[in-house]
Amino acid sequence: MQTPNPPSHSDKCVFLLQSAIKSRNPFLGRCIHAPIIKHGLCFGVFLMNNLLNFYAKIGSFSDAHRLFDEIPIKTTFSWNTILSAHAKGGHLDSARRVFDEIPQPDSVSWTTMIVGYNHLGLFNSAVHTFLRMVSCGISPTQFTFTNVLTSCAACKALSVGKKVHSFVVKLGLSGVVPVANSLLNMYAKCGDSVMANVVFDRMRLKDKPTWNTMISMHMQFGRVDLALSLFDQMSDPDIVSWNSIITGYCHQGYDIKALETFSFMLKSSYLNPDKFTLGSALSACANLESLKLGKQIHAHIIRVDIDIAGAVGNALISMYAKSGAVEFARRIVQLTGISSLNVIAFTSLLDGYIKIGDINPAREIFDSLNCRDVVAWTAMIVGYSQNGFISDALTLFRSMIREGPKPNNYTLAAVLSVFSSLASLDHGKQLHAVAIRLEEVSSISVGNALITMYSRSGSIKDARKIFNQICSYRDTLTWTSMILALAQHGLGNEAIELFEKMLKINLKPDHITYVSVLSACTHVGLVEQGKSFFNLMKNVHNIEPTSSHYACMIDLLGRAGLLEEAYDFIRHMPIEPDIVAWGSLLSSCRVHKNVDLAKVAAENFLLIDPNNSGAYSALANTLSACGKWEDAAKVRKSMKDRAVKKEQGFSWVHIQNNVHTFGVEDALHPQRDAIYRMISKIWKEIKKMGFIPDTNSVLHDLEQEVKEQILRHHSEKLAIAFALINTPEHSTLRIMKNLRVCNDCHSAIKYISKLVKREIIVRDVTRFHHFKDGSCSCQDYW
Questions:
Q1: Rounded to an integer, what distance in angstroms lies between the CA atom of residue 434 and that of residue 515?
Q2: d(Cα 473, Cα 443) in Å, to the nearest integer?
């Protein structure tokens, strides 16, 4: 390229500079700078502003800043040009300093700051800047409105958005299509479909983005018919229009409809699917676990030579992983590279490996990720915990605290759920402290997880405290968690009272809430109340009962001794009874010693699950409790012949960060002798207090003395003896058990709590028992 001849005057320089900007020719512009200096034109304000604008536009930030400092006369345009260079470069701290130095910032200055905040995702700061702009009496422009409305939509600042709307109307800009579209988008993103419809109906001119925003909003809110009606009214829908329908179907769970629409688009439209279309179509295949359709879409991608890096590659990985073809997903990872793997695809891959019981490859991929963000760490932790690798989950969490990103509320909630399953109160309290330190304790997900953790760890008092602390932002899950906690701790009346408070504030319960409140009725024997809630669920809240709700009703009737009514309820259920339903009836038959109905329940139970040891044991125990020793022996023999192994009962206790587990007649613990001496001493003392061993709890035809010895060495009694030896006086004992606590242990622990003057909390397979001063929170109804 030849060097242009030196310009003779400033107008020619301005023309050449503007040409250099339009043609993005930095060489031409720099060639103008030297003659400007040589000919002494640097005092021309218009010329120098154009030169400054040239350097800013080509991205030469240092040259622009140096020139700005040298300009003898700075106008508002000069300030705005250098301000824009700072803001567009992402240097907002320096942009703020420049802005504060502007003698009289105009609407362009303010709008530049708003745009800069938006580009960095600081939407709240953008909104705050707009409010300051208005308070300073600066009139916003069309460009200001479109940007601040984008900010309001992003941070869901509906109240501010409505104020912006009033400014738009006041300034007569509501008919300007880009502004009206921004208003439409703001109302749609903020969930105000009524105002979105008002804006849409008042628009005289509508372009494709107008229609697409409304279609997307209707699909988002599940109003599929309205979205399709608008789509059909479009004369020439673009790819965004088709994507809104296809993506909307996916989000609403209509995956087959999404794929049908995708197929129709390919056949009837001249448009080619973009990465969003393909991503949604592959997502539908993943949700349907349809490997065949997913492969067809993959073949289309290969045939039209679409780059699978990025979104499309991640969608392919998710589809293959969810459809059971984990190795295909792994090959896509190898093709696209680990660096392209996003968290959704990684999570799908993780789930895929979990399904086949092999989590190690997922960990290898996790370790290979260049950018392991908080979601990736959380997904890996959850993967470990869901697959039973609790120790690995906790180890990884500790690594995250040391060297990874700051855990967010989802990470903390996931780890709290691990501690809930372990019923580890000490660890849970430590994590509670971490949540407070990270300022995540106010998060609704962490609050809900804390309620569950404290409840399952036996501390209903702390669960209540957390529930009361989050009073201003409770959701349905919060109320449900607390209702379930109270129910499991035998505080059924309090659970029902809380449920009724929930209804009074017009918070709609979901199906899990009703499982919780029906469980509360079951634990305290409120049969009529339970029936009333069951009808309320169906007839008022229009929730279709699931097998869990039916099982609760069967358990409610059975525990109350209404066995025939429970059986009649099963026979008239609109769904096929499952093992939980028959198991609930069988358990009640054992408690109330109804042999005939127990046989019916066990027979139906074993038709569904022939190798379930619980059904055999429950029937044998029912027969034994009724003195039918021969029949019980036959059931046990049948169980042995079919190689069905009985689930062994065991209890465990956490002492100084260690878990100590005990079985019946346990002889393996290092402190065995001390434990047996302690339980013998306790046994003698509580018998003196009036305790009478319930030898009927030993469901074998043995001598009374042998039965009493077996009872004395039940796992929960051994765990209590060990805890008494190894914990400070007056501290609470927390014992966990994998089966239902037997009548004898229940009675004995009441006496033990009075003898040792301690609260003893026992969590069995169905609920918590709080033993204190010789009584139990269940009031002997369990």
A1: 32
A2: 9
| CA–CA separation, 193 and 218 (whole Å) | 8
pTM of the predicted model as reported, rounded to 2 decimal places: 0.64
* Mean pLDDT across 476-499: 92
Q: b/e string for 265-298 if b means 16 or more Cβ within 10 A?
A: beeeeebebebbbbbbbbbbbbbbebbebbbebb
What is the separation of C-alpha 41 from the centre of its chain, rounded to a whole number of angstroms?
64
User: How many Cβ atoms from other residues are within 10 Å of residue 601's Cβ?
Assistant: 32
Phi, psi of 605 (to 5 degrees): -60, -50
pLDDT (mean) for 260-274: 89
Q: Using alpha carbons only, give the angle 591, 592, 597 rounded to the nearest 5 degrees.
A: 105
Mean pLDDT in residue range 405-429: 84
Task: Please give the mean pLDDT across all residues of the chain.
Answer: 86
**What does the block give as tokens for 742?**
């037997």
Q: Are 167 and 201 in contact (CB under 8 A)?
A: no
Least confident range of 45-54, 239-248, 757-766: 45-54
C-alpha–C-alpha distance, residues 392 and 380, integer Å:
10
* Distance (Å, whole) CA 229 – CA 522: 49
Yes or no: say if 324 and 299 are a contact pair by the CB < 8 Å rule: no
Percent of the chain with pLDDT over 70: 92
Q: How far apart are CA 84 and CA 65, in angstroms?
A: 11
What's the pLDDT score for residue 251? Answer: 87
The predicted model gives 644-663 an average pLDDT of 84
The pair of structure tokens assigned to 477 is 């899950």
| Pairing of β 733-737 and β 760-763 | parallel
Q: Outline where DSSP puts E strands in 386-528.
A: none
Strand, helix or coil for residue 191: coil
Whether the CB-CB separation of 47 and 13 falls below 8 Å is answered with: yes
- String of b and e for 159-190 (b: at least 16 CB within 10 Å)? ebbbbbbebbeeeebbebeebbbbbbbbbbbb
CA 271 to chain centre: 37
- Spatial distance between the Cα atoms of 188 and 222, rounded to a whole number of angstroms: 13
Distances (CA, A) of 70 to 21, 73, 149, 726: 21, 9, 37, 80
Report strand pairing: 733-737 vs 658-663: unpaired
Sign of the torsion formed by the C-alpha atoms of 621, 627, 628 and 632: positive
Q: For tokens 């040259």, what's the residue? A: 63
Residue found by looking up tokens 């044991």 in the block: 617
| Model confidence band, residue 615 (pLDDT cutoffs 50, 70, 90) | confident
Q: Is 204 exposed, middle or buried (0-12, 13-18, 19+ CB in 10 A)?
A: exposed
Share of the chain above pLDDT 90, in %: 42
121 Rama sector, left if φ>0, alpha if ψ -120 to 50, beta otherwise: left
Tokens of 613: 């040891």
Strand segments (E) across 618-753: 650-655, 658-663, 733-737
Integer CA distances (angstroms), 586 to 484, 487, 609, 617, in order: 24, 22, 14, 10
- Enter the DSSP assignment of 510: -
pLDDT for position 1: 45
Q: Taking a C-beta distance cutoff of 8 angstroms, is the pair 482, 447 a contact?
A: no
